[in-house]
């Protein structure tokens, strides 16, 4: 619409007719809201004046529309016009009539909320702040106006506090005065304003404000309500500024504890406010409050049971002796009631303070179990329901934190042992709660039981009889809500899954009936959970098909089957219920199918129907896999062929999970029912398999190849299958073997496939071997030569083929390969492949009959190609594995005599030792003289100048230590004090190779002396320190129990390695320019990576706040290689202990902002640009994690950083991509 038309609207607004004015104002709002609206200066002025005049319209509807017009108007007019509007509104607020004040206040809040950050915001804030401050502090301003001014100022501070630096001191003075106002509403609003202002105050002004409040509290001469407000102010400051409050804790904590303990009997609100402030210290100043933890914890525990108006000690004693009469128990809870009693607020504040301890300090978990756990269990008898729920939640926090910190712990020394000792008392207390009337109480009790079973499986085996009545009552009672039933069912499912079936056999009859009844509930979530529990019942009543049991399960077969079938056949129900019914029916048939033979004709077609339904097919596929794997060999004749055909078609679908499940199920069906499946079905399966074999999805490839092997093992259809496999699958397999990505399960499956193929009647050994050799040259699919990794894959497959073909073929192949090595080609891919093949065959078979094979291989050490040399070293070592008595002495003698080839020969020796330690731990064929010679040789090379030699020696020593720990560990420990830094570093690296994930005999030898190795982290040589950090990281990952007791001493030393040390930075003069080299970079990077590992394995040993400040903060500003692990650590900390991170969030903003806004030089190469992009994405992932922390909005600095940097400009797309990636990963984890 043109400006002329807008002018017409403005004329109508001047009408005396109220309806005309309303319609015209509505039209104006529509025009202003259009993106295309632009006004000339004169029209802009007119619109502003008219909208401001409409605010005073006698009609409330019209003035309301005028307020709405301001929202789009301030975005469309000039900066000066916005300031004019704001000034006018502020004047009306401060000096206008009552109605004008109210409208002006609403309008100002609207403008503040809508203006964009930038120059306009700066001007508006500069204009408003002095006026509002004057209005707040003026004695002439009435209370209502002051309240409105404080509300508006609070909104401004939340949005633009950092833009008001020049006004901070003036505002602070005006606001602090209000803390002693006699008006409670003004004090409350002043607290909100000061909390919003605090995050952007300088340290000096913040300190002044806090000291002012502390001074008020020290005075103790003011009214109690003013004291309470100032205590609330202390808590608000702490929550707003986090660690910055730490400097004032020495004064604040004793004052608050004093007020809490010395408050008058009736002043429970003062106690509550003090405890709330102390809670904020624990959450937001986690590091700085450490010296006062014990006092605050004792105070919280003291007031957890604070109930001066009621005592129930006698009732508690009677209840323990009177468990029979439930009605009396239920009536007893209402014996006492006092509406004026607010002591429950104190108890609630105390339990929340205790929760803050549990959440923020996992390193205190052991102390919390000894002090807090018994007290919390005792307080389950709390009479105020809301407080009781908070106590349940606090105990759940304790259980969850226990689960987090006990991963990899020794059970006997962990909090789990302390928890187990409390289980009997805990169960008795919870049983009483399950008899209460209140539904919320029973839900809370079940939530505690759920967490308990999750953290400490099998802990309730001796208490099942006492828990059953509570479960029955929750499921049968007509007053039970759906939420209570779901909680009871989830607990029952968890306890059945984590305990021995025999525990439940005495209670099956009493529990099964209410569970089956719950299957018929109308609410789908109850039904779905009841079906899951029914599935667990199936496993419980018949835990083993092959072993006889004294428990007779037969009476329960038909009731379970009937209840599940009813849900399985129903059409009009939720998808979750359908999937649970399919899953349960699969279990019933697999475990009880021999007692349901007459019903199979009914239920199997229904499952087939669900298999053909797009919504339920994935669950049905898994159900048929469960049935196929049953040892009962259920008769599937009526549906077998159709199921095979449907599964075959699923292999073409885009849904990866469906294809994967279909492959697994087909394999299970073929193993169990192969003789009943027609050849045409198998051929169609093979045709589909060929398209699934590629390095794009190695897991799918492995499943497809395993299915091929299963089909080739079927004697009935072998000839036809072999023919189709050779034509369809073999070309894909030959193409796959060239992939540099091939590894793990897929490589193993490919080897099995080639082995099965050579044993088939349709494939000649020579043809297959030639095809493999040709694949290395690129002729298999017309491509170029295979990559380096592909040669190793081809060699392994060739070795499997040779061994599967038999001795004659194997011998002739070895002779051919030896001749290829002898050939005149020097460096060629043929020689490389031949050497690798000889190594793979020699490892599996004794090649000593081949004359002078070792001489031929060692001759390749002279090749100019490093790849040929490495392959020759590999081959020599693996051939020695096949016949140690012959070849090991040869290798040792060569190491002595061939000094130039020691590195390669040591690699050969490493192959021998590695294979021995991997394959035959405890059964080594190395004889004493050979062992002595090897050790002497290895220890003599510990001081080698070549790092590569030392690394090989360390690995050899570590692998040998696995076989003879009693001999090697003391020898390695003795060398920890060697004067040679190279030797000290080598023995530490050797120890690293002894710490494997699986339990080993060496563990008991290492445990007493591992500190001798790890304490070299304080060695003077950086190489030794780097080796110690690496060994610590490996131990933390594989066996955290070995190092947990050492961490209090080691962690400060580890943190010290994260600090930039100037003495390790040197400048290299390269002539035209100078280059700075940081020798400590790798050490810092390794130290942060070690901390990252410790966060996962030993979180209870780490004081997060001590690490974050200053060590993590320093790392976030360090080199690219250091920033990357620091970003990952920050993400983990945000998830694990968000409250601790919140305490220092403002300090994190600056290094993160520098990282995400970093720009590369114009002449930067592509590698530098890519590294910078990776670093920015890494930082954005950390920022996304920070943004998910509950309460992050309290940090104005971080909020401004998100709005002005992360969510604007070029970073928006990157940030959204990172968030989407995170959400996708989270969804995948949940689906698993």
TrEMBL record:
Superkingdom as given in the UniProt entry: Eukaryota
Domain TATA-binding protein interacting (TIP20): 1042-1204
Organism: Ceratopteris richardii (Triangle waterfern)
Signal peptide: none
Protein name, entry field: Cullin-associated NEDD8-dissociated protein 1
One Pfam assignment: TPR_CAND1
Residue span of region Disordered: 313-341
Any GO BP annotation: SCF complex assembly
Family in the record: Belongs to the CAND family.
Keywords: Repeat, Ubl conjugation pathway
Claim: Repeat is one of the keywords in the record: yes
């Amino acid at each position: 619409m043109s400006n002329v038309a807008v002018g017409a609207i403005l004329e109508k607004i001047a009408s005396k007719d109220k309806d005309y004015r309303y319609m015209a104002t509505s039209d104006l709002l529509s025009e202003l809201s259009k993106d295309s609206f632009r006004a000339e200066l004169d029209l802009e002025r007119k619109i502003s004046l008219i909208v401001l005049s409409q605010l005073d319209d006698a009609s409330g509807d019209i003035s309301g529309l005028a307020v709405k017009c301001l929202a789009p108007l301030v975005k469309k007019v000039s900066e000066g016009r916005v300031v004019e509007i704001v000034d006018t509104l502020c004047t009306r607020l401060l000096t206008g009539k009552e109605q004008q004040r109210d409208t002006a206040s609403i309008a100002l809040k609207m403008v503040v909320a809508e203006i964009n950050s930038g120059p306009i915001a700066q001007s508006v804030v500069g204009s408003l702040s002095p006026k509002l401050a004057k209005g707040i502090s003026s004695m002439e301003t009435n209370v209502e106006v002051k309240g409105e001014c404080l509300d508006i100022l609070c909104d401004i501070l939340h949005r633009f506090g950092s833009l008001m630096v020049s006004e901070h001191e003036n505002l602070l003075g005006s606001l602090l005065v209000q803390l002693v106002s006699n008006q409670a509403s003004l004090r409350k609003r002043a607290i909100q304003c000061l909390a919003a202002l605090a995050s952007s105050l300088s340290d000096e002004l913040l300190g002044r404000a806090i000291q002012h409040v502390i001074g008020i509290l020290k005075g103790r001469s003011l009214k109690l309500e003013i004291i309470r407000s100032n205590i609330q102010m202390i808590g608000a400051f702490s929550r707003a500024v986090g660690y910055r409050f730490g400097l004032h804790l020495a004064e604040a904590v004793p004052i608050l504890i004093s007020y809490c303990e010395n408050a008058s009997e009736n002043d429970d609100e003062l106690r509550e406010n003090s405890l709330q402030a102390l809670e904020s210290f624990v959450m937001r100043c986690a590091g700085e409050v450490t010296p006062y933890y014990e006092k605050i914890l004792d105070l919280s525990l003291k007031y957890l049971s604070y109930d001066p108006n009621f005592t129930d000690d006698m009732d508690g004693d009677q209840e323990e002796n009177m468990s029979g009469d439930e009605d009396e128990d239920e009536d007893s809870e209402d014996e006492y009631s006092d509406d004026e009693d607010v002591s429950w607020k104190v108890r609630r504040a105390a339990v929340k303070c205790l929760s803050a301890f549990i959440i923020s300090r996992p390193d205190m978990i052991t102390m919390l179990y000894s002090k807090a756990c018994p007290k919390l269990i005792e307080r389950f008898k709390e009479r105020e329901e809301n407080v009781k729920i908070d106590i349940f939640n606090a105990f759940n926090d304790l259980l969850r934190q226990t689960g987090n910190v006990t991963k990899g712990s020794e059970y006997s020394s962990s909090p789990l042992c302390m928890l187990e000792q409390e289980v009997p008392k805990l169960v008795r207390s919870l049983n009483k709660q399950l008899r209460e009337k209140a539904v919320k109480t029973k839900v809370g009790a079940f939530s505690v039981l759920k967490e308990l079973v999750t953290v400490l499986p099998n802990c309730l085996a001796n208490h099942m009889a006492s828990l059953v009545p509570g479960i029955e009552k929750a499921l049968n009672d007509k007053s039970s809500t759906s939420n209570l039933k779901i909680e009871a069912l989830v607990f029952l499912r968890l306890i059945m899954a984590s305990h021995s079936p025999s525990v439940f056999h005495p209670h099956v009859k009493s529990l099964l009936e209410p569970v089956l009844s719950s299957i018929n509930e109308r609410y789908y979530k109850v039904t779905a959970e009841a079906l899951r529990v029914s599935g667990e019942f199936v496993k419980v009543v018949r835990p083993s098909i092959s072993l006889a049991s004294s428990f007779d399960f037969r009476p329960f077969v038909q009731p379970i089957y009937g209840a599940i079938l009813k849900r399985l056949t129903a059409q009009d129900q939720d998808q979750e219920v359908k999937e649970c019914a399919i899953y349960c029916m699969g279990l019933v048939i697999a475990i009880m199918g021999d007692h349901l033979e007459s019903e199979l004709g009914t239920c199997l077609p229904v499952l087939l129907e669900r298999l053909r339904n797009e919504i339920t097919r994935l669950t049905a596929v898994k159900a048929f896999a469960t049935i196929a794997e049953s040892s009962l060999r259920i008769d599937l004749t009526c549906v077998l062929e159709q199921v095979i055909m449907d599964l075959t078609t699923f292999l073409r679908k885009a849904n990866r999970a469906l294809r994967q499940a279909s492959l697994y199920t087909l394999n299970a069906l073929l193993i169990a029912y192969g003789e009943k499946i027609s050849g045409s079905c198998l051929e169609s399966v093979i045709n589909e398999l060929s398209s699934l074999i590629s390095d794009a999805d190695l897991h799918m490839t492995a499943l497809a190849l395993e299915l091929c092997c299963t089909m080739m093992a079927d004697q009935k259809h072998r000839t036809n299958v072999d023919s189709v496999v050779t034509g369809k699958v073999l070309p894909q397999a030959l193409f796959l073997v060239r992939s540099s990505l091939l590894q793990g399960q897929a490589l193993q499956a490919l080897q099995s496939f080639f082995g099965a193929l050579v044993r088939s009647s349709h494939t000649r050994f020579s043809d297959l071997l030639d095809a493999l050799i040709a694949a290395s040259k690129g002729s298999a699919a017309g491509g170029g030569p295979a990559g380096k990794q592909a040669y190793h894959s081809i060699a392994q497959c060739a070795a499997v083929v040779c061994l599967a073909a038999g001795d004659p073929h194997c011998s002739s192949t070895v002779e051919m390969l030896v001749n290829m090595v002898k050939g005149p080609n020097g460096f060629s891919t043929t020689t490389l492949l031949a050497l690798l093949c000889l190594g793979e065959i020699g490892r599996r078979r004794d090649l000593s009959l081949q004359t002078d094979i070792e001489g031929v291989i060692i001759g390749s050490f002279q090749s100019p190609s490093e790849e040929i040399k490495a392959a020759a070293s590999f081959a020599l070592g693996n051939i020695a594995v096949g016949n140690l008595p012959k070849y090991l002495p040869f290798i040792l003698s060569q190491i002595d005599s061939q000094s130039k080839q020691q590195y390669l020969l040591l690699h050969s020796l490493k192959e021998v030792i590695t294979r021995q330690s991997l394959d035959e731990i405890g059964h080594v064929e190395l004889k004493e003289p050979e062992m002595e010679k090897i050790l002497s040789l290895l220890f003599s090379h510990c001081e080698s100048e070549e790092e590569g030699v030392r690394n090989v020696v360390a690995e050899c020593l570590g692998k040998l230590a696995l076989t003879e720990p009693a001999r090697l560990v003391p020898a390695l420990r003795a060398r920890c004090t060697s004067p040679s830094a190279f030797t000290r570093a080598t023995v530490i690296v050797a120890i690293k190779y002894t710490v494997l994930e699986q339990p080993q005999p060496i563990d008991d030898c290492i445990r007493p002396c591992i500190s001798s190795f790890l304490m070299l982290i304080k060695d003077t040589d950086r190489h030794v320190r780097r080796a110690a950090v690496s060994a610590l990281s490996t131990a933390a990952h594989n066996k955290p129990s070995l190092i947990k007791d050492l961490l209090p001493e080691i962690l400060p030393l580890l943190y010290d390695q994260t600090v930039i040390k100037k003495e390790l930075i040197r400048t290299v003069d390269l002539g035209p320019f100078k280059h700075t080299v940081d020798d400590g970079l790798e050490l810092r990077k390794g130290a942060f990576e070690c901390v990252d590992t410790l966060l996962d394995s030993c979180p209870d040993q780490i004081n997060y706040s001590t690490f974050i400040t200053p060590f993590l903060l320093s790392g976030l500003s360090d080199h690219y290689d250091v920033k990357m692990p620091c970003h990952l650590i920050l993400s983990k900390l945000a998830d694990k202990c968000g409250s601790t991170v919140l305490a220092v969030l403002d300090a994190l903003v600056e290094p993160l902002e520098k990282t995400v806004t970093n720009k590369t030089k114009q002449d930067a190469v592509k590698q530098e640009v890519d590294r910078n992009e990776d670093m920015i994405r890494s930082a954005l992932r950390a920022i996304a994690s920070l943004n998910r922390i509950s309460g992050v909005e309290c940090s104005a600095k971080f909020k401004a950083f998100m709005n002005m940097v992360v969510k604007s400009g070029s970073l928006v797309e990157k940030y959204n991509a990172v968030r989407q990636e995170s959400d996708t990963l989270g969804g995948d984890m949940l689906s698993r």
